[in-house]
Give the backbone structure.
Amino acid sequence: MVFTQMTNFSRIAGSCLAAALFLTTQVAAQNTPSSPQPKQDAPRPDPQSRITVEVTGGEKETPVENASVYFKYIEERKIKKNKTMEMNVKTNREGVAHVPDAPLGRVLIQVIEEGWHNYGRWFDITDSKQTIKIHLDRPPKWY
């Protein structure tokens, strides 16, 4: 007798559960808007955002070709230790190097080229299309 009461109870509970699921799907179907609204993602950075570094040298302000430009910044994290990120780009014939997707904030820019003094300085990047002009000097002659 206990067994039959348990099977009757499980049948009733199962049918109540099925009815509840059916009703919730019907109510959910009625509450959905007719035209789905597009999801708004986080704003993406401008694909054309890049920092331009112009490297010149000497008394005549000649462009320095093929100089290594190191672009270093610190990626701050909330849980883990901060991570130092670095990018290396080369200058072209006009002495111009482009750093793509550069972050805004404080960055260290170092310029190294054979035959010129090494250069390094911290800059505050405030604009995504900022141009930084760097002038290199010749090293003194050693006799």
Q: What stands out?
A: The beta strands are 50-57, 62-63, 68-75, 83-90, 96-100, 105-112, 119-125, 131-136. Residues 41-45 have pLDDT under 50 and may be disordered.
